[in-house]
Amino acid sequence: MTQCAQCGNDYAHAFEVTMAGATYTFDSFECAIQKLAPECGHCGCKVIGHGTDAAGTTYCCDHCAQQAAA
């Protein structure tokens, strides 16, 4: 079995994700998101959708981008 890069779980149905030249093994999409998804520059949540970028920072939504600028 293969060990998850996020939680350490050994899982027979693990999968690999390659990002920026590094390959990681995960047992779930939840672990992949926790390890690889960017965090919102305002509220800190994981950005798993399109999000938005402003002034070099990633935000989960326009509301957070506007709040950060205020």
Q: Which regions contain 5 or more consecutive residues with pLDDT less than 50?
A: none
- SS-based structural class? alpha+beta
User: Largest beta sheet: what is the strand line-up?
Assistant: 1-2
**Element pattern in H and E:** EEEEHEEH
Radius of gyration equals 15 Å
Strand content: 25-35%
Biggest β-sheet strands, sense, barrel: 2 strands, antiparallel
Question: Separation of termini?
Answer: 49 Å
Task: Give the domain tally.
Answer: 2
Total of helices: 2
Number of strands: 6
Principal-axis shape equals elongated
Mean pLDDT: 95
Helix content: 10-25%
Describe the protein in words.
The chain is of the alpha+beta class. The protein folds into 2 domains: 36 residues, no CATH class; 33 residues, no CATH class. The protein is 23% helix and 29% strand. The chain contains 2 helices and 6 strands, in the order E-E-E-E-H-E-E-H. Strands 1-2 form a two-stranded antiparallel sheet. A two-stranded antiparallel ribbon has the order 3-4. It is elongated, with a radius of gyration of 15 Å.
